[in-house]
Amino acid sequence: MSRKDFIDKFINKLDRVDGGSIRSLLRTITKEKGLAERIFDSIFEGIVVIDEGSNIIFYNRAARDLLGWPRDAMIGRRIEGGWLRDMAGESKAGGEGVTRMQVPVERGRIFDLSSVPLYDNTGNPIGTVVLFRDISDDRRWEAVRRSAARMEAFASLAAGVAHEIGNPLSSLDLYMQLIERDLDKLPPGEGGDIREYVGIAKDEIGRLDYIVKQFLRAARPMKPRLGMEDLNEIVESTLRFMEHEISKGKVRVVPSYAAEVPGIYVDRSQVRQAFFNILKNALQAMPDGGELRATTVAGSGEVSISFTDTGGGIRPEDFGRIFEPYFTTREEGSGLGLMIVRKIIRANGGRIEVENVTLPPDGKRGTRFTVRFPIGGRYRRMLPEKRQTEDRRQ
After folding, report:
1. Mean of the pLDDT values across residues 193-206?
2. What are phi and psi of 59, to 5 degrees?
3. Hey, which residues does 298 pair with through a beta bridge?
4. pLDDT category of residue 114 using cuts at 50, 70 and 90
């Protein structure tokens, strides 16, 4: 017997039932309905029930919270498209089994989805139950754990490389100096080619020495010497230090500093090093010149600095790798600069964000690095791993 036939027969027999029995029956139905709703609302996963016409006939509290739906306002609404409609379709196509998948939804979140078809007593399909939960945090923390493992392996490798290469490089540099002294004893005009080769060798030794120092800087733990600093002053001093490189690269700097910037509790020299690496990266992205915007902002308990270039932006497939050790898109790059930046910013209680942007008024494409620090002495450290907490709602 279908639900409609049952209701029709029940209504036809109502005139034969006394009022007390009807009231008792309605109280029982209401009580059971309320109990069922409380049970569904206590479940952490979102639940949405959809009929055969793709209309919503029920959803619980978790679904309201995850989807931002008002209470009961979506009942009877038809789902025209999107992942809910797709899941209902997949469930129908899959027969009586459970369909499960993970899909990205709005605002960069990822949902783990399951759907089960519903049937009446006669086996006719009457709808679909879709269950889902937000696993975005799980994915993020898994990425953090993988990154921590890579960093540990990198630190061990970097320490070994620095030890094995550092001393031979010092010896080579010393021998190059001795050769230069001997060349100075030759008659004028002799040894020109050798001088050129020695110069090239010294340049290469210097480059290797720089890479080794980068390795050590990346591998060693950051121990900030904290003090109250002015973010505007740190940015200005870094730009002054790089003034020659900026001018040589035909880059125009457009500064915009907030008038009143509260102090931040950081290691000034470390933060300057991080800004230097970001600016160096921006200049390398604009080999034919361009524009660099440096903007500070204060508010909401933090201060920030944004460095925006017109270098064309980062390829989408590279976004997840730019802070990884050894990753570089340049032949002469070591792939350590941005990794060191993130390490410094985290050690000083801040966070760094990166995005591609389109700049007005001419619509040039570029990259924006934004570094945020908490105001005053609210020093925050990045935890190496996610803290274990009690079960929480997704």
Report:
1. 81
2. -155, 150
3. 303
4. confident
**How many folded domains does the chain comprise?**
3
Same domain, 255 and 116: no
pLDDT at position 222 is 63
Residue with tokens 């055969």: 52
Q: Which residues contact 232 (CB under 8 A, 6 or more apart)?
A: 257, 258, 261, 296
Is the pLDDT confidence value at 181 over 50? yes
> How many CB atoms are closer than 10 A to CB 384?
10
Q: What is the pLDDT of residue 383?
A: 40
CATH number of residue 39's parent domain: 3.30.450.20
pLDDT of 394 higher than 50: no
Tell me, yes or no, whether 146 lies in a domain.
Answer: yes
Q: Domain boundary residue among 219, 253, 277?
A: 219
For the segment 27-45, the average pLDDT, to the nearest whole number, is 65
Q: Kindly tell me the sign of the dihedral angle through the C-alpha atoms of 60, 66, 72, 74.
A: negative
CB 132 within 8 A of CB 82: no
Distance of CA 174 to the CA centre of its chain: 46
pTM exceeds 0.70: no
Both tokens assigned to 384? 């190496």
Q: Which residue range(s) make up the domain with 29? A: 3-134
Q: Provide the β-strand partners of residue 366.
A: 357
Q: Classify residue 264: in a domain, yes or no.
A: yes
**Do 99 and 11 share a structural domain?**
yes
